[in-house]
Amino acid sequence: MTLPGIEPIATFLGGLGLFFTGIRNLSANMLQIGGKRLREAATGHTGSPVLNALIGTLAGALLQSSNGIAFVLISMVTAGLVPVATAMSLMLWANLGTSTLVILASIDLRLVALVMLGIAGVWLHIDRAGSSARRRAIEVLMSIAMLFFGLELLRTGTADLHSGEAAEAMRIAGASAMGAFVLGVVGTLITQSSASTTIIAVAASQAGLFTFNDAVLLVLGASIGSGSNVLLLGARTRGTQKQLVLFQALAKLLGIALILPLVLLELSFGWPLLLHAVRAMASDPGRQLTLVYVACQAAPLVIVGVFSRPIRQLLANVAPPLAAESLRQPQFIYDGALGDADIALILVEKEQARIVARLAGALEKPDEAEAASLTSLTAAIGRFLGAITGAGEGSAVALPQEQLDRIANLQARNEVVRLLHENVQQFARERDALPPGAVAKLADTLTQGLSAVLMCLDDAVRDGAAEDIALVRQISSDRSTVVDSLRRQLVQAGSQELVYSLTSLFERAVWLVQRYSLLLVDGGAAT
Amino acid sequence: MLAALDAGVSRLLLDLSAVTYMSSAGLRLALLAAKRLRGSGGKLALCVPQASIASLFEISGFSSILSIHRDRAGALSALSG
Questions:
Q1: Residue in A452, A474, A476 closest to B27 by CB
Q2: What is the residue range of B39's domain?
Q3: Is B69 helix (H, G, I), strand (E, B) or coil?
Q4: Which of A3, A217, A311, A482 has its CA 20 to 30 A from that of A330?
Q5: Among A414, A428, A306, A278, which Cα is nearest to A366's?
């Protein structure tokens, strides 16, 4: 038995579920497959505008998440792999690249979707022992099929809903220009994708659920929603990262700043502007909306192209680079980087390298405030590493063993560097409390020796050269014989407890340096 | 010392006979010279007669990678070998 009116609602909901599952899996699988290639492509070229356009558009078309790509690029800039200007250009073109899916979604692909769904489903069932790369490629096909099939169900559901109460509620929401605009903003904040909101708006418009003018305003609102999303995700970024977050949000805003006045003038005075042009280019309202979406993504390319220098100056003033920021604040890791485990791990190495670089200074002049900052920083790194693992577990695509091993290695390094820093601080505090005399002289010798070892560790972590890592391992090998000899000479002169404490802290520090150097050999140094 | 290395010296004797105190920066400088000479196929030998300085090389572990001698004759012999 079926309740009256439930079928269109169930069809609509089922379509919505399939659509979002498809788009989520597509983005997750494509980021896994294409994220590394995007990084290689973005790193490998010299910043030529034509290549930026090609790589950015292709990345947007394939990865289907302009904000996801923005955060990959932010991570790459932070890691020093890509210049800021190149990242900005790639972001703009990637935004345009996301239009591909919106264009495809405006075409009736029901039969194609069903055939793809059949082939991919049967293939995944039969080819259980296939290579992970092949299975991932089929999963991409499956995701696209689910997305399009979901879209077809959405279209059917919305068409059947046309005269129902739910449709009446949507009509009320979209009845005013402002209502449609707000619906676009809120919808995108929920879906996290302006392309998704636009695709749903296209389906709803094709089914006659929205008037064309309202649907246009909904699409414009979706761009604002997307800009708000990137601001929310990047709320905790600082310095250059913040500049790039603001740039991506600004790009969305600039698109609307150019398009919205044209639309409002056209709606108010009937002047033949953008809407007139899209009507001339396509007869179907869905395709006309798609063209409006493409115009929103293309407009920032024009504006940023003309005002590139003042925009970058403005961003640098609003979010100056981080040189003078406190050690407590992570300089490299940030939540937006969690989507790409490879690059997130490089950022962790860079963050840990900052701590290693401070060890010799902490030995020379212990500072309680800096000690608290470093403790807080290692805790933040630990949480971030946990979140990378958590993001992998929550993702449709599991982290490969190689990445899990690197995470374990970096967790071990984090613990070792935390203990090493605590040990160095304790040694420095005890040394500074010593009265002048033979024990103080021993403490100074130990300080100079340990400081040299810590500086060599810094070199090895910073440059990652195999020769430097081998050197650290050699100089941090067991030296109990020489320390015992010093200990015996001074214990005879008294101050037994102080001498034992200092020499033990020294030996432990050197042992921890060796532990760290062994982890560098096993897991690679900071790059 | 760095000027000598820049000039292309391939065998260097670092005589620390008159040195009574050495910091970690001095240790690092000796290591830098050894690395540069090793990279160009050269040699470095140190003459370290002072017990306190020799102890510093021992404590830092640098004695395991540097050629350290108690007198000039030993250091010169190591360089000519």
A1: A452
A2: 2-80
A3: strand
A4: A311
A5: A428
Query: What ranges do the domains of chain A cover?
Result: 6-318, 335-523
- Beta carbons within 10 angstroms of residue A468's beta carbon: 21
Contact B31 A452 (CB under 8 A): yes
Contact status of A122 with chain B (Cβ, < 8 Å): no
In the predicted structure, residue A441 carries a pLDDT above the cut 60:
yes
Q: How far is B4 from chain A (nearest CA, A)?
A: 23
The reply to whether B10 touches chain A by the CB within 8 Å rule is: no
Looking at the predicted structure, is the pLDDT value of residue A67 above 90? no
At A418, the pLDDT band (50, 70, 90 cuts) reads: very high
For residue A100, pLDDT over 80 is answered with yes
A360 contacts on B by Cβ (under 8 Å): 24
Residue A65's nearest CA partner among A94, A92, A86 is A94
Q: How many contacts (CB atoms, under 8 Å) link A and B?
A: 61
Instruction: State both tokens at A54.
Output: 């090609």
pLDDT at A159 over 80: no
Least confident of A78-92, A483-497, B17-31: A483-497
- Report the distance separating Cα A455 and Cα A471, nearest Å: 12
Helix H, strand E, coil C: the string for A185-219 is: HHHHHHHCCHHHHHHHHHHHHHCCCCCHHHHHHHH
Residue A164 in this model has a pLDDT that exceeds 70: no
**Dihedral angle of Cα A190, A194, A198, A199, to the nearest 10 degrees:** -80
* Dist CA A369 CA A26 (whole Å): 46
A399-425 mean pLDDT:
92
- The total number of structural domains in chain B stands at 1
Residue A399: pLDDT band by 50, 70, 90 thresholds?
confident
> Can you give the CATH number for the domain in which B58 is found?
3.30.750.24
Q: What percentage of residues in chain A have a pLDDT greater than 70?
A: 86
Contact A12, A154 (CB under 8 A): yes
Q: How does pLDDT run across A135-153, given as a tens digit for each residue?
A: 777 888 888 888 888 877 8
The DSSP-derived string for A132-156 is HHHHHHHHHHHHHHHHHHHHHHHHH
Whether ipTM > 0.85 holds is yes
Residues A103, A287: Cα–Cα separation, whole Å: 7
Q: Which residues contact A389 (CB under 8 A, 6 or more apart)?
A: A399, A404, A407
The amino acid at A194: S
Give the pLDDT confidence of A68-92 residue by residue, as tens digits: 788 888 877 766 667 788 889 999 9
User: What is the value of pTM for the model shown?
Assistant: 0.57
Alpha carbons within 13 A on the beta-carbon side of A255: 29
Please report which helix (H) or strand (E) contains residue B12, including its range.
Answer: strand B11-15
Q: What is the CA radius of gyration of chain B?
A: 12
What is the rounded average pLDDT for all residues in chain A? Answer: 82
Nearest CA in chain B to A446: B59
| Residue linked to tokens 């996290």 | A192
User: For the structural domain made of A335-523, what CATH number should be given?
Assistant: 1.20.58.220
From residue A391, give the alpha-carbon distance in Å to each of A84, A337, A340. Answer: 27, 11, 9
The confidence band for A168, taking pLDDT boundaries of 50, 70 and 90, is: low
CB-CB under 8 Å, A450 with B61: no
Cβ atoms of A389 and A404 within 8 Å: the answer is yes
Q: Using alpha carbons only, what angle is made at residue A37 by residues A35 and A39, rounded to the nearest 5 degrees?
A: 70
